[in-house]
Amino acid sequence: MTGTRTGRRGSTTAWADIDLHALGRNLERLRHGLPGQAVFGVVKADAYGHGAGPVGRALQRFGIDGLVVADMGEGITLRRAGITAPILVIDPPLPSQLRLPALHRLGATVTSAAEARALATAANRAGRTVEVHVRVNTGFAGFGVPRAELTDLLAAVAAAPALRLEGLYTHLSGAYGPYEDGGLAELERFGEAVEAARAAGRLPALVHALSSPALDRPLLTGAAARIGCTAVRCGAALFGIRMADGDPPLPLAPVMSVKARVSRVTALEPGDVADYAAAGAAPRRTPVAVLPFGFADGHHLHRLAGGVLLIRGRPAPVLGRAFMSSLLADVTDIPDVQPGDEAVLIGRQGDHRITAETLAARSGLRPSAVPLLGPRVVRRYRSNAAREDQTE
Ligand SMILES: *Cc1c(COP(=O)(O)O)cnc(C)c1O
């Protein structure tokens, strides 16, 4: 079960297994639950820590309709990684970045007529047509064109032959909250914007509003279909991470597991302490496993105190708080732990499973923040259960 690759690279002691097969299954399931909708995969922040290049290429192989990133630099990275699928950049281009969409065939977001005109000038100079998506502000963080300016912006895009209107979109903050109808009011505002674009004869082919937490809420998927949405953007769901509580009507598999090898087995004597704060002195002799995984490897893990990891198929309580590059686990109830044993920090071992959602709840983080790991944690990619493809 342990990776041959890791064995060869004897220096690898902490790694993340990225199951590209699970990624493909998640995409299939999402497609199945959203008939007729184009699916855009959001791979910003290095594909939520899963690796933008390998994940982007895998999604492209699986037939994703397009990819979404936060900024131009991430888009260029994907092009250099061999992605030919459409790429939408969420942040509108800065004045210094106006040439990049034309040069790298990146879809640009525009949120004002002035941005559209500046982008058109740069596209003309480059002699290329640039695809644009207009983002509409429906009440979230001031992102997007105010609805009152939408038709002027659409007119400015239509007046620029170097720009091709590809999409109209918004992002629903309410979908990330606990309420079944969260995001519905924003979606209704978006519906008015869609109607205004339609009335002006300028409704593009791609109309998108829903992201991961909205995809299993019939109230939102139904309303989106009614107002004419034709696409969804999802990140977390593709990675099998649930952003909101509730039973998943779409069964999604986690894509990332995080593992480390026990580096030492030692013991705390009565009165010894397990971390700098010297808070909890061991009341009794405590056998401990040292794991090469500290807060530099996953900042949230220093909040693991009170949590567990898995060794030999059993839960081992984390002792104290993690150090920069290691942490201690209490192995009193797990006999025969040896250096080199594989420990699971996120994922399954034996009958036990630790999910990103559990860690998020314990650490107060958003679930999508959990897979953002430090640079020491090597990522290993598998396309099926038996074979490893690449190491990054
Ligand atoms: C990050 C992001 C998404 C993806 O959100 P998930 O909840 O991960 O699906 C979609 N749209 C926009 C505009 C985003 O910034």
- Helix percentage: 25-40%
Looking at the structure, what is the overall shape?
elongated
Under CATH at level 1, the class of the largest domain stands as Alpha Beta
- Average pLDDT works out at 91
Structural class: alpha/beta
Keywords: Isomerase, Pyridoxal phosphate
InterPro entries: Ala_racemase, Ala_racemase/Decarboxylase_C, Ala_racemase_C, Ala_racemase_N, Ala_racemase_pyridoxalP-BS, PLP-binding_barrel
Protein name: alanine racemase
GO cellular component, one term: cytosol
Helix-strand blueprint:
Blueprint: H1 4-8, E1 14-19, H2 20-33, E2 38-42, H3 44-48, H4 52-61, E3 66-69, H5 72-80, E4 87-89, H6 100-104, E5 107-110, H7 113-126, E6 130-135, H8 150-158, E7 163-169, H9 184-199, E8 206-208, H10 218-227, E9 231-234, E10 256-261, E11 264-268, E12 286-291, E13 308-311, E14 314-319, E15 327-330, E16 342-349, E17 352-354, H11 356-363, E18 378-382, E19 388-391
The protein binds pyridoxal-5'-phosphate.
Family: Belongs to the alanine racemase family.
GO molecular function, one term: pyridoxal phosphate binding
Keywords: Isomerase, Pyridoxal phosphate
Give an overview in words:
This protein has 392 residues and is an alpha/beta fold. It has two domains: 20-239, TIM Barrel; 256-370, Lyase, Ornithine Decarboxylase, Chain A, domain 1 (Beta Barrel). It is 27% helix and 24% strand. It contains eleven helices and 19 strands. It has helices spanning 4-8, 20-33, 44-48, 52-61, 72-80, 100-104, 113-126, 150-158, 184-199, 218-227, 356-363, and strands spanning 14-19, 38-42, 66-69, 87-89, 107-110, 130-135, 163-169, 206-208, 231-234, 256-261, 264-268, 286-291, 308-311, 314-319, 327-330, 342-349, 352-354, 378-382, 388-391. Strands 1, 10, 11, 12, 13, 14, 15, 16, 17, 18 and 19 form an eleven-stranded mixed beta sheet that branches. An eight-stranded parallel beta sheet has the order 8-7-6-5-4-3-2-9. A hairpin with a 5-residue loop joins strand 18 (378-382) and strand 19. Helix 7 (113-126) runs parallel beside helix 8 (150-158) and helix 9 (184-199) runs parallel beside helix 10. The protein is elongated. The structure holds pyridoxal-5'-phosphate. Residues 42, 44, 90, 171, 211-213, 233-237, 243, 368 line the site of pyridoxal-5'-phosphate (PLP). It catalyses: L-alanine = D-alanine. GO terms for molecular function: alanine racemase activity; pyridoxal phosphate binding. Its EC number is 5.1.1.1. Keywords: Isomerase, Pyridoxal phosphate. Residues 255-382 form the Alanine racemase C-terminal domain.
